[in-house]
């Protein structure tokens, strides 16, 4: 894996690896945990039945398996990738490397647990579920990050654990755009430069390996009391950006 791209081949990944692919021409990334045997466990919206591959997969009868009302789905690698490229999420990277990454959300400074532990957590959540999917508070990247590290944030900051939400919003960026400071920026080029820098900084500040408000939670304790809420401040911040 190089500094710029984490792209890998199918025969390079191992059980317990956090993998991802890009959907809709780089519009967003979709994340999962490779559990071996050409299978990926990933977290999706329950309501989106297009993720149900049960009747579509030509290769694996159990592809698309999920518990009723659970967004945690078992798919084969081919259905997960949909012919797109495969990437491997990096753990335990140095902060300097993290900052240098062109795209945020492809690595973390947090260390991964052992592959056995990761696969155990993942298969446990396939049976027990992972709460409600919420693009801002609980998404596929959060699921994979939790399976890899066991870390959850004590979340009162209004940002998701993964930074996928902050890449859309970015609290410092929202503050910048809504403040009179933007009038001081010289040109559209200047705005783009500043916002890219702000993006990197905010992404780093929300990295699960950097934040101090994270706790290690055993997967057995997680199931059953996984209560998630939408933060009104996040929605408000998003509206600032859209305007
Ligand atoms: Zn399949």
Write a concise keyword list for the protein shown above.
243 residues, alpha+beta, endopeptidase fold (from Nostoc punctiforme), 5-stranded antiparallel beta sheet, two-stranded antiparallel sheet, 9 helices, 33% helix, globular, disordered C terminus, binds zinc ion
The total beta strand count reads 7
Summarize the biggest pleated sheet: 5 strands, antiparallel
Mean pLDDT: 71
The percent range for strand residues is 5-15%
Shape: globular
Which fold name fills CATH's third level, the topology?
endopeptidase fold (from Nostoc punctiforme)
CATH class: Alpha Beta
First CA to last CA: what distance?
38 Å
Number of domains: 1
Secondary structural class:
alpha+beta
By CATH's scheme, which homologous superfamily applies?
A: endopeptidase domain like (from Nostoc punctiforme)
Question: Quick recap of the structure?
Answer:
This protein has 243 residues and is α+β, with helices and mostly antiparallel strands. It has one domain (10-242): endopeptidase domain like (from Nostoc punctiforme) (endopeptidase fold (from Nostoc punctiforme)). It has helices spanning 77-81, 95-100, 115-128, 140-149, 164-168, 171-177, 188-205, 219-222, 232-242; strands spanning 18-23, 28-36, 39-43, 72-76, 87-88, 151-153, 214-216.
Question: How would you describe the overall organization of this protein?
Answer:
The protein is an alpha+beta fold. The protein has a single domain, classed as endopeptidase fold (from Nostoc punctiforme) (Alpha-Beta Complex). The chain is 33% helix and 14% strand. It has nine helices and seven strands; from the N terminus they run E-E-E-E-H-E-H-H-H-E-H-H-H-E-H-H. It has helices spanning 77-81, 95-100, 115-128, 140-149, 164-168, 171-177, 188-205, 219-222, 232-242, and strands at residues 18-23, 28-36, 39-43, 72-76, 87-88, 151-153, 214-216. The chain has a five-stranded antiparallel β-sheet. Strands 6-7 form a two-stranded antiparallel ribbon. Strand 2 and strand 3 form a beta hairpin. Helix 3 packs across helix 4 (140-149) and helix 6 (171-177) crosses helix 9. Residues 48-54, 156-161, 163-200 and 224-243 have low confidence and may be disordered. Zinc ion (ZN) binds next to strand 4 and helix 1.
């Amino acid at each position: 894996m190089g500094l710029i791209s984490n792209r890998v081949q199918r025969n390079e990944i191992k059980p317990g690896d956090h993998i991802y692919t890009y959907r809709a021409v780089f519009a967003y990334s979709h994340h999962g945990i490779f559990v071996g045997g050409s299978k990926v466990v990933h977290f999706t919206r329950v309501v989106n039945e297009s993720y149900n591959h049960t009747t579509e997969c030509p290769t694996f009868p159990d592809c698309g398996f999920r518990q009723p009302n659970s967004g945690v789905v078992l798919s084969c690698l081919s259905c997960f990738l949909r012919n797109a490229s495969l990437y491997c999420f990096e753990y335990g990277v140095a902060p300097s490397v993290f900052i240098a990454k062109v795209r945020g959300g492809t690595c973390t400074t947090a260390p991964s647990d052992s592959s056995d532990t990761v696969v155990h957590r993942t298969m446990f959540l396939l049976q027990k579920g992972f709460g409600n999917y919420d693009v801002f508070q609980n998404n596929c990247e959060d699921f994979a990050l939790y399976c890899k590290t066991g870390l959850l944030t004590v979340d009162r900051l209004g940002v998701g654990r993964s930074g996928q939400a902050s890449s859309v919003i970015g609290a410092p960026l929202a503050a910048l755009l809504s403040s009179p400071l933007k009038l001081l920026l010289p040109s559209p080029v200047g705005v783009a430069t500043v916002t890219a820098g702000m993006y990197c900084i905010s992404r780093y500040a929300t990295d699960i390996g950097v934040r101090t408000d994270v706790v290690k939670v055993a997967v057995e304790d997680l199931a059953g009391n996984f209560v998630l809420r939408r933060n009104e401040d996040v929605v408000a911040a998003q509206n600032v950006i859209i305007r």
